[in-house]
Amino acid sequence: MSSARDLFVSVDVETSGPIPGEFSLLSIGACNIEDDRQTFECELKPITDRADPKALAISGFSMEELVRIGSEPETAMKNFASWLQVISDGDRNLVFVGFNAPFDWSFINYYFHRFLGKNPFGFAALDIKALYMGTTGCAWAETKSSLMTEALRPRRRGDHNALSDALFQAELFRLTKAST
Questions:
Q1: Per-residue pLDDT tens over the stretch 71-114
Q2: What angle do CA 123, 129, 130 make, to 5 degrees?
Q3: Please, are residues 122 and 81 in contact by the beta-carbon 8 Å criterion?
Q4: Were both Cys, which of 33, 45, 109, 152 would link to 170 (CB 3.0–4.6 Å)?
Q5: Quick check: 46 and 73 in contact, CB under 8 A?
C-alpha cells in the first residue's frame, strides 16, 4: 500500500546502447502519474561516441544531431531535478516508475550521480511489469506491453518517444493499480 506522501513519477529514456557510462542517455521523458499534465522532456548531448545502431534505429536519434542540439548532461539533470522538486513540493517521497524500470533507472541513476552527485529518487525503482505480474498472477512472458495493452485497454500507445512512452507507462500503472 502506498502512502499519501509517495509521488509516483513515470520515467522513460532513450539511449545509445545497453549500459550507462559506455553508452549515452539521449532523452528523458517523465510525468507525474497523479497528474500527467505535469511533464518533463529533454534531449541530451552524448557523453561517448559509442552507439548501437539498433538502439538508434529504435529511437530515431542521430548522435551528430544531438551533439548540436542536445542539452549538456549536467544542465539536463539539474533541470530534471528542479522539475521533480517542483512537482513534489519538495516534501513528497519520489518513486521512480518505469516499464522495465531496471534499464531506465540505471541510466537515470548513473547520470544523476555523475553530474549532480545524488539521485532524487534514491536507490530503488518500481517496475510496472513486476507490479502487473504480482497483481494478475500472470507469467513473466505475459508482461509484454502488447499483452498488457490487450488486457488493460489504455488509450495511449508507446512509440519510442521518451515523453510519449512515459505517459503510456503512467496509464498502464494507473490501470494496473485500479485492477486490484
A1: 999 999 999 999 999 999 978 999 999 999 999 999 999 999 99
A2: 65
A3: no
A4: 33
A5: no
What span, in angstroms and rounded, lies between the C-alpha atoms of 160 and 55?
10
Q: Where are the domains positioned within the chain?
A: 6-178
Q: Would you list the DSSP string of 85-127?
A: HHHTTTTSEEEEEETTHHHHHHHHHHHHHHHHSS-TTTT--EE
Is residue 149 within 8 Å of residue 160, measured between CB atoms?
Answer: no
Please, are residues 73 and 83 in contact by the beta-carbon 8 Å criterion? no
CB 81 within 8 A of CB 120: yes
- Residue reference for cell 521518451: 162
Assigned C-alpha cell, 63: 548522435
10 touches 170 (CB < 8 A) = yes
What whole-number distance in Å separates Cα of residue 50 and Cα of residue 32? Answer: 32
Q: Residue 77 in contact with residue 111, Cβ under 8 Å?
A: yes
Tell me how far apart the alpha carbons of residues 111 and 72 are, in angstroms, rounded to a whole number.
11
Edge-first strand order for the sheet with 39-43 is 39-43, 25-32, 6-15, 93-98, 126-127
Active-site positions read 160
- What's the pLDDT tens digit per position in 43-70? 999 999 999 999 999 999 999 999 999 9
